[in-house]
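Section 3.1 - Work completed
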Amino acid sequence: MTKKTISMLVVLVLMIAGALPQPQAAHANGNATIQNYPMPSIYTASSVYSVRADSQSVPVISYMPDYDYAQFSFDGTVSIEVTFNAPITSYSISPLAKNIEGTVNGNKLTFSLSSSTYVIVEINGLRKRLVIAADPLETNIPPSSGAGIYNVTHSPYNADNTGAAMASGAIQRAIDAAHNAGGGTVFIPAGVYKSGNLTLKSNVTFYLAGGAVIVGTGKGEDYTNDFRKTSRNADGTYFIRTTAGSSNITIRGRGTIDGKGIAMRERKMPAPNKNEGFLNNLLVPMQTSNFNFDGLILRDAGFWSFMVVRSDNVTIKNLKGFQDLYKIENDVIDINESQNVLVQHSIAISDDDTYSTKTWLQTGMSSGWPGALEQLENVVFDDAFAWTRCVAFKIGQGVAQAQIGVTVRNSYVYQSARALLIDHGYTMNTLPEEGYARRITFENIDIERVDVNQFGNYWLGISTSTSGDVSDIAVKNINIRQLGAQQSRLSGNVTRGGMVKNVMFSDVYVKGKLATNLTDLKVSVINSNVTGVTFANSRPLLFGDNFEGGNTTGWTSVAGSWSVPTDGGNNVLSSGSQTITSLITANAGNAWTDYEYEAKVKMAITNANAGIVFRVQNANNYYMYRINAANQMLELYKSVNGQMTLAASAPFAAGSKKWYNLKAVVEGNKIICYVDGQAEMEWTNPVTELTTGGVGFRTTSAGVHFDNAAVYPITRFSDDFEDGNTTGWTSSSGSWSVTADGSKVLTQAASAAA
C-alpha cells in the first residue's frame, strides 16, 4: 500500500499542574479507583435500571427497547449494585463464561468485577437488558490546556458545547491547527457538540472526554455525499473520516459519537433526492497508517458504524458499538481491504453483523475509495463480545480479493442467528483471479445463544459461492451452549470449482460434551468440494455425559433418587428432593487407572455438599472429592470397605446456586484436586489401594445438580505454541518457527533431508 509519509515534529510538552475537569476525575472508593462521567444533557436516565459502582451513582442512559447502558472506568475490585424497578426473581450476567455470580436482595442485584469487563445483565426475563461498560481506568488523560493542547471550547475556536449551534467548524479548525503545527491534541471537554462532517489529519490526537458527545443533526442535507448504497436506495456520508494518505492519528477518550443515524435514514430528504433517506458511517479510517482508537462509544449509525478502509497498522481498543437491534445493514465494525489490524476488548450490539471483514471491487458503495484494490491480511479480533440478530463474527460476503490470516479469539457470543461464518459470497467478481480466504482461526470462543432465524439459524457456516477457495480453517477451544435450529454446513461450489479445504476442529464442546465428529456438532458436508475435515482434540475423551438425552442411561443409581431436570435451559443430573445419601456411578471405567475426572456441581442451599467420586470399584470402595458448603471446606475422602476416612481438606468460600467445576487428577497414589481450574490441594495415599475404577457423584443433600461429566487420560506433554516460540523443543534438522499471525502454528521454512 502506498501511503503519504509525513515526518513528525517531536514536541516536548511541559505539563502544567492543575485540577482535571470533573468528568475525568479519579476517586478512590474502597478497593477500586473509579472514574465516573456525567450523562450528556441530550440523553435521559433509564426508568428501569440504576447502577452504583462502590458508593458512586453511575448514570444509566435510556436507549433502545432492548437495552439501556451505563459506563464508567475503574481499577481494582469494584462492587456493582444494580437496582431494578421491581423485585428480582431471576437474573443472568453475561458473558456466562466469566461465571460472574451475584447476590439478590429485593430489587437489588450486587456483583463484583476485578478487571475491565463489558457485561449484559438480564433480569426477570425482561426484553430490556442492561449493558454495563466497565472500562479500564484512563491513565493518560491529557490536560485541558497548555502547550500542544487545542481545546475546542477555548479561543480562537469557541465551539458551542450545549448542542444549540453547530460546532463542527470550530472543531475542524482545531484539528487543522494541530495538524499544521506538526501534531497536537484536540481536547473536547464534556458537553454536547452538534456536528457536520469532520476530517482527522496526520499526527493529531483527538481526545473526547467522558461526558462529551459529538452528535449528528439527523438531516442528510447537512453532510457531504460520499457514497451510494443501492440495497438501501440511499446516499450516505462518512461522519468522521481521516484524510487519504494520512498517518499517526489517534482518537480516544470516554466520550460518545452519536450519529442520529436511524432518524436520518428514515427521514425523507428534500429535492433532488426526495423520498430517500440518508445514511452515515460514524468513523471511517480511510487509507491511513498507524491509526489508534481507544475507549469511545459509537452509537446510532444509519449504516455500518466503524468502517476501516484500505489502512494498515490499526489498533482499536475498548470499543463500545451500540446499534439498533431491528435495523438491518447496521454492522458495528467492518474491516475492509486492510492489513495488520487488532480489535481488542470490545462490545458490539447490532441487528446486522457485529464483526466482519471484507474485500470489494471498486464499484457501488466502494467506488469512491482512494487507491487501488488491496487484499486483507493479519486481522485479529481479541476479547470481543457480540450481540446480534445476524452474524457475530463473519469473514466474507465480500472476498473479491484475498483474505489471509483472520483470527477471532478469546471472544463471546451473547446472541446471534449465526455465530461463526466464512461466506465467500461475492459472485460478481470481474477480476482475472478469484479471491480466496485462507488461514482463518476461531479460537477460545463461548457461544451462548443461537436462537434468531434471520437469513439462517445455525452456529457455523463455511462456504464458497465462487471458484475461490476457502482453506486452512481452525475451529478450536469453542464452547457451544446452543447449536441453532438448522444444520450447520460446510459447502464448496461444484459448478464453479470453489473448494473448502483443510477444516480442523479441536476441543469443541457442545453443552459441555467434547465433540469427536460432525454429527456431534450438527454440521453437514453439503457436497464433494469439501476436503480435509479433521478432528484434533488435545485430549481424547474416555467418557462424557452432559445429560442432554434427558435420562441416566449409562449410569447406575446406587443410593437415592436421581433424575434429569432442566436448569437454565440445559438438562442436568439431580440428587432429588430428600436429604439422604445419594450415590450414582457410571457403568464404564472399571479398568481405568490414571485419569482426570471433572464435572460441574451446584448446590441449592448454603449448607449443602456436592462431590465427585472416582476409582469407584463398588458401592463401598472409591475416592470422593467434594465441596462441603456447610463447613466452607473442600474435602477429599477415601472409602475402603464402606469405611469413610477424611484424607485431606482445605478452606473454601462456597456459595449456593452457583456452578463450580470440580476436577480430580489421580495418578498412581497421588491425587490433585481443582476448583474452576485452580489446584486447591494435593494428597498422596501412603497405602496402595483403590488403584482402578470408574466415576460418579455423591451427596447427602437435596436438590444438588451435576452436569458435564468428563474423563480424560492424563496429559503427559502438550504445547499449543501460543507463546510464539519453540522453547522445550530441539530442532534436529530443518528450519522451524512459530507463525507470527493469529494461527500460532509450528512451521518448517525449508525442506530438510529425509
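Second construct:
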Amino acid sequence: MNARRTLAFLLRQETKTNTYKFALVRALNDLALGYCALRVPEPYIAIPLRKIAELWLSYYWAFCDPQKPVLQGPVTVRDGVVRQDISFRRSLTDLRHLVESHGLLGSDPAGGYLVHQMVQVDARHTVPRLALLYQQVLKDLMVAVKKPIEYSGVGESHSLFLKPEKLRGLQQVTPFPESHPTDTCVPVPAEIWSELQENSILIGALTLQEWAKFVGEMRQEPCTTGDAFNLLMVTPSERTSLSYERNQLRVLMLEGLLDRCPWSRKPLKPDDFDVDHLIPMSILPINEWWNLLPADPHFNRHVKRDRMVNVQDQEVVQRRLQHLFEAYWEGENVSRQVEQDALKRFGLTRWDTGRLAAEVTHMSLQVADFRQAERFRVLV
C-alpha cells in the first residue's frame, strides 16, 4: 500500500455525499499525532470508535449552531421524509443549545473542544440533562463514524479499513491506550498510521482544504469556502475553563511544592502565574494534567507563547518535568488526575515520575517535528 497516495485519493477523488470522510481522516490524523509515543508493532492499530466520535463532536460543533447551521451535505427528501445532511445534527444541535442557554462557553464555535471536560467536572449535575445528552450525541456519532469506515477505499470492495469489531475479537492489532476488550474498534493499517504521523501537517492541511471546498461548493449552503475553513480552524482559548486547574496549582504553591517556573526559573507567585500548555492548544487541544504547568506570565506570553521546546533542551526539560510531576504527586487531587491522564495517553499503569517525564518530553519533541512547530529555549 502507498499510504500517501491512498489518503490523497480518499480526500480528493473518492465519492462523497457529505463531509464524513474528511472528518474521519482528520480524526485519525489528530489521534496519530496525539499518541505519537505509542509503538505499533502489529499490522493494525485498533482505534475505539468512541475516540473518533469525541473528535467529531469537536469538529462539527461549529457547524451545528442552533441559529446558523452550516450544511455538511445535501438535504434530501426520501419517501416524503426530509433526510438531514448529517445523521447526528439534531442531537448535537440540542447539546450546543443546552450548553449555551445556560451561559456556558458563550456562542464559541470552538466550544466542542471544551464540552468534554465540562461534562467530566460537572459532578454535581448543575446543568440538567447535560451528561445524558452528551452520551446520546456520542452514540449517534459512533453510528455515523461507521459509514466512512465502510465506504473508504478504491473499488467496490472499499477495503481501506477492516470492519469495526469488539477489541477482544480482533487479531494482529495494537490496542489503543486505556481501551477495553468490549470497545468497538476500527483496525487502521499501520502504514496509514505511520504516514499520518510523518506527514501530519501536510495531511491536516489537505483535509481542511478539501473539507472547506466541499462545503463552499454546495448549492444549498450559502457558507463560502473561506468561512467554512475558518470554522474548521477554530481552537479554544488556552485560558478557557482552567479555573479548577489554576486553583489546584495555587494550592501546591501555597504548600511550598511549586516554587519556580519550569521555563524561566523565576519564582512563582500564587496570585500571579499562567497555566501553560506544554503542547500549545493551537497545535493539539489537550487539557490533560501532564500537559499543564505553572509558568512565569512574562516569559509565557512573550517568549514561550505557542512555541515548543527545543531538542537541544531535551535533558533539562525532562529533568524539570520530573520535578514538576513529583510536586503533582504530593497533591491528593492532582496526583489522581495525573495518574488517570497518564494511563489514558501513555498507557502507564502505575505512577512513575521519571518515565512519565520521559514519555511527555519525547511526545512533545515528536509533535513539534511532525507539525514543524516554532521552538523556544528554556533558561538555565
